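Hi, here's the filled form for the chain we discussed.

Project: internal
Contact: R.S.
Residues: 221
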Amino acid sequence: MTESRHAIPFGDAPLDALAIVPDAPRALYVFAHGAGAGMEHAFLVHAAHELGARGIATLRYDFPYRTAGSRRPDPQPKLVAAVRAAVAFARETYPALPCVAGGKSMGGRMTSLAHAAAPLDGIRGIAFYGFPLHPAAKPGTARADHLASIDVPMLFLQGTRDKLAPLDTLTPIVGGLPNAHLHVVDGADHGFAVLKRSGRTEDDVHAELADATVSWIQHLP
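And the returned structure, exactly as it came back:
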């Protein structure tokens, strides 16, 4: 696998990005980070390498606030614009690879919001690593309202202990969407951590996430 740094054009301040490309890539995942950490977060690094080992290239990128060194997320329109810039860059840089997009928590949600507003060119599907159905301690489903207008397949990877997306609420929502698939990770929380008593390791969970993502990508139309 090869790793390369990129600067994604975005107004006056390009977005930092990192691509991991295996020797014979089968597809590319444009992989956005969550609200609490940037593209160098250990979870995203681990996930990208697991995907790379299975033939899936990744393009991780920082949202503008992370590139600027801030920890406070940008307003939604700016986040959505960054998703659109990252996907356009990915399609231009790796035109031969089938492309899917999404990300961890907020990054996945911003990707789906971008696509719902105006389809992301060339995207064959959206994969969510922990869709944040509602903020912490504020139950609701309004964040899922836009999903019904999305016209590409969607993959939801969710833990059974995810407090931001209880399965009894999320499952019927996903079930009512066309071309949506829910993969449940037993014992995982929103960050996909599992309890020691489960007998599972971090590596086990990452392998499951990568296998589920690759299987979904392989069956995309």
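Let me know if anything looks off before we file it.
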